[in-house]
Amino acid sequence: MAHVTGAYPPTRGRRVREVAFRTLSAVALLFVIGPSIWLIADVVVRAVPHWRWDVLTTVPLGTGGGLENAVLGTLVIMVGVLVIAGTVGVLSGIHFAELARPRRSGRAGGAALRTATEVLSGFPSIVLGYVGYVALCVGLHWGFSLLPALIVLSLMVTPYIAKSTESALRQVPTSYREGADALGMSTGYALRKVVIKSALPGIVTGLLIALAIAVGETAPLLYTAGITNTLPSASLIHQPIAYLTYYVWTDYNQPIKSTQYLSFDAALILVVLVLALLVVSRVLVNRTQRHAEGRR
């Protein structure tokens, strides 16, 4: 009996189905990236012709000025959310993936925690902002300030970080953990040096999504951060803080052209910030993966 070494030649029907599948995939990809490209292009077209570099070094003055206070305020908010939500979210994801497994802590406990996380992620941002205003700004007498804004934004994005961290850790092959156990590594050491390092791309992606969500929010910040024309201070409470989305939201519909230009500039700066986050995250992931491959 002759040994068959080659694959069967594709039939006409298979070729048609393959072409149709590729076409539908391309159309679906276009639906995903098309609106993003359109929005970015629209922001660039509106902002670049009237761009002024002194927007980055001056504060708003009446119907003119710049956005220095909002740029610095947005960066401060991003760092605060990264510290608070990043810490809580990553640790929560590690707990879900490594410590709350059915064989260790029981199925009910892990299910209850995941349900609570999913419920929290389903709350509208404006509801969280209002609750933060009532509980923190009014109830604790903190007023419009940085700390209530960080707490509300962190509550909003922590579920995304926890879920992405859990998914990334669960995608690490079981053989990695078994190999670490065979080498005599402790659970904590193996988790830090083997499991988390292998899952780092997914964890960084979750952090990036969380920061992108936080930097683009307006409603929670209106209730908690307030607004001010001054630069950020070291005070966490009793001092409002500026942010870019406020000027995008309020200045766009103003009848004065110079004010509308500030809205376009704020939108352009937000786009650049998100793209910078993407580039930095990819550089960090590539460096980590290169070192990991070199060690293997």
Tags for this model:
296 residues; 12 helices; 2 domains; mainly alpha
3D structure, described in words:
It contains twelve helices and two strands, in the order H-E-E-H-H-H-H-H-H-H-H-H-H-H. The protein folds into two domains: 12-48; 54-295, Orthogonal Bundle (MetI-like fold). It is globular and about 65 Å long. Strands 1-2 form a two-stranded antiparallel ribbon. Strand 1 (60-61) and strand 2 (64-65) form a beta hairpin. Helix 4 packs across helix 6 (146-170), helix 6 runs antiparallel to helix 9 and helix 9 (200-215) runs antiparallel to helix 12. It has 296 residues and is mainly alpha-helical.
Which spans have pLDDT < 50 for at least 5 consecutive residues? none
The number of distinct β-strands equals 2
CATH architecture of the largest domain: Orthogonal Bundle
Assigned CATH class of the largest domain: Mainly Alpha
Shape: globular
Predict the CATH topology of the largest domain.
MetI-like fold
Biggest beta sheet summary: 2 strands, antiparallel
Brief summary of the model shown:
By secondary structure, the chain is mainly alpha-helical. It has two domains: 12-48; 54-295, MetI-like (MetI-like fold), CATH 1.10.3720.
Blueprint of the fold:
Elements: H1 12-47, E1 60-61, E2 64-65, H2 68-99, H3 102-105, H4 107-121, H5 125-139, H6 146-170, H7 174-182, H8 187-198, H9 200-215, H10 219-224, H11 244-251, H12 257-295
Antiparallel strand pairs: 1-2
Helix pairs in contact: 1-12, 2-6, 2-9, 2-11, 4-6, 5-6, 6-9, 7-8, 9-12, 11-12
